[in-house]
Amino acid sequence: DEFPLPESVVMKSFLSNYRKFGDFEGATAERHSTVELNVQRRYVSTEKFLPIVLLLINEFCERFFYHGFKCTLILTCYVHMGLSERASVITCHLFNILCCFFQLTNLTTTDIVIGKFRGLVMFIIIYIVGAMVYFAGNLEKSLSQSPDIGITVLAVVLVSIGVGGVKPLTTSFMADQIEDIGETSNSGRIVGLLYVGGTLAAIAAIVVIPSLRHSLQCMDAYCFPASSGLMFLIIILGSLAIVYGRQKFARQQTDGSVISLAITCCAYAVYNRFKLRNVKVEHWLDYAADQFDKRLIQDLKEFFCSLYIFIPLPVFWSLFDQQISRWTLQATYLKGHLGPIKTLADQMQVFNHIFMMVFIAFKGTNVTYIQANSAMNRPKVKAAVGSILAAVSFTISALIQIRIESESLMLLEEGFANIFLVNPTDCDLSVRFIDNYVIGRESRKLITDILKPSHYNCYISVDKCPQKSSFNKSIFLDNSEFTIMLAKSHNRSIEFDIYTFVEFPRREREDLGSVSFLDTTEGKITQIFEIMTYGFYRLRRNLQPGGFTDFNHVFPFQYDVMVEGYHPNKLKFHSGGIYVLIIRDNRTLLQEEIVSPYTLPMVAQIPQYFFMTLAELLYATTTSDYLNMQIPLVLRSLQQFLWTATNMLGNLMVIAVIASNIFSKEDEIWFFAVLMILNTLALVFAFNSEEKKRRKLGRNLHKKLEADDVVGVLDRSTSSHSVDINLDTPTSNVSL
């Protein structure tokens, strides 16, 4: 496994064989070689494709854990750990940043320092430790009801280290196995299997993990330990595949890092630019020509022409990665039931993967022919359309947010109070304040309004009763209080009881409802109220002074509700609804709905996922393909390095906007939509600048080659000595 040559010899050979890092014209690279490296491979495999199958199994398990962890992290922080919305969103994007950071680190060092296989094993171990810490943190919260945020943060860091190491090493190690068994001609199919396996793992994880958490009831209703425990077992299974194949994998020593070499070359050129100020060159990279290969310098010139394309990418990633944070939190305020099907907020992320697979399959039909004969075939146009579609997806999200906020109850404003009239009697009531403000006249209905704090005298008239009557009632409404006026029949007359809550109940935490018990039996009920479902979830509360309980969060189910263990009542609570359960003399319950549940279905988010996925295909995929064509193949790892860096910058932008706390939810969505529209203009400018730079580079190189030809002719006609031909001149390997 150790490389047999000293480092100086290795780097000398690497420089002379530079073009071997991806050049299809291997014969030319071989002709330029001065040192031949003999890479020792170890062949222990007994079955030809077994190493590839084992890596596919590991990839499936790793992707299952990664996508399961990523899709549930926002609700784990917000619902389970009790963090605020902003803190939960920042945690999710911090996880993305750490994954990108460690991936950048591993792209440059790991396979060179410790080797691919050893690095893969090391990061899988870190992965497993992170999964175990994540499971332990969820279990500890469920047992103690006091979350330790430090454990969750530690799990996020460990998992991000594992993701950043395993993801690039698995792909690179798979390429070694394909080369080892001589199946390079089928490498496209194998890589396709790797992609399909990862996508199927993502779909399975996003569907199964939230369903498991929601269907099982643990100590705190939602069973977060069950979902994190399943993910822990899956990553263990993936690691067993690597352990089983440790003697069967072909291990190749990497010659060197193209990224490190490119950075060194650029740094040396910058150093010489300031050191040799009197020396004029065509391009600043030419200052490194005395120490670095001319082909490397030429490829770097072509690479720097494409840097403009990377500039608009962070803005796109800042929108795209909010699918796991803001969009998931938005889904918690939507109705999750679609007929008999229950849809969870974090399961909506599965549409991104489903749409992407459909689009990729659809891409091979007649759409390809249509695009080839239209303006859409130009990468610049495709990317611009994709950028606009990303803005469209956020526009849809903003419209949904407007609907959510319009449906939400107008919460207490400063200087106002709330009063609710509940009339469970069979009589019609008309309640009028002295200032002629009519609350309403309904039968067995809840009537609401918002009033200024003050003393009020109410004139109440009773109609359609055996004995019509009217009377006055004096009440005082204090600031920020929630008052219930409950009518009840007593001795063939109507009376009103007043119950005052210190704070108004609010909609909080995912798809929860809120419920409070209100006793009208005049002290006959003093013991426990129980809300039970499936034999798992049990909520017990005692009455407070005043004859009511606090509002408690409940999950949207049908419950058996019992008073002192008698007379079970089957009641159903919905997402976002706020209910008062009125206890009557016979211990039966009357369910009154104070705040209506959510009405906008969760499927309303599907269009925004559709447009965002289409934007990913037209913008990100098209841009990546365009860069693959423009950047020399040998610098592909440097391209991947910058691509990952733009993803990290995009998530940093989201954190900066969230942490600034200058926008409301709705304004924040509009901000990103407008930012993406402006980014479209920057994208067009970037493509135009890249084309201009590349044409200029091509003209300069063409003039240089013509000058070299003239000098060669003059030398041959005037010199009687033999002519030395410099094979390092890249005449046959120039990308124009």
Low-confidence stretches: 1-46, 709-736
Fourth-level CATH superfamily of the largest domain: MFS general substrate transporter like domains
Calculate the terminal CA-CA distance, rounded to whole Å: 40 Å
Query: How many structurally independent domains?
Result: 3
Provide the residue-averaged pLDDT.
75
Q: Provide the CATH topology of the largest domain.
A: Growth Hormone, Chain: A
Secondary structure: number of strands: 20
Strand residue percentage: 15-25%
Tally of helical segments: 20
The oligomerization state is single chain
Helix fraction, binned, reads 40-55%
Name the CATH class of the largest domain.
Answer: Mainly Alpha
Strand pairing plus helix content: what structural class? alpha+beta
Largest sheet: 4 strands, mixed
Order of neighbouring strands in the sheet with most strands: 8-5-11-12
What gross morphology would you assign? elongated
Pfam families: PTR2 (PF00854)
Transmembrane segments: 87-107, 119-137, 149-169, 190-212, 224-244, 303-320, 350-369, 381-400, 609-629, 641-663, 669-687
Protein name: Solute carrier family 15 member 1
GO molecular function, one term: transmembrane transporter activity
Question: What's this entry about, in short?
Answer:
With 736 residues, this protein is of the alpha+beta class. It has 20 helices and 20 strands. It has three domains: 41-255, Growth Hormone, Chain: A, CATH 1.20.1250; 293-409 and 602-637 and 661-736, Growth Hormone, Chain: A (Up-down Bundle), CATH 1.20.1250.20; 417-595, no CATH class.
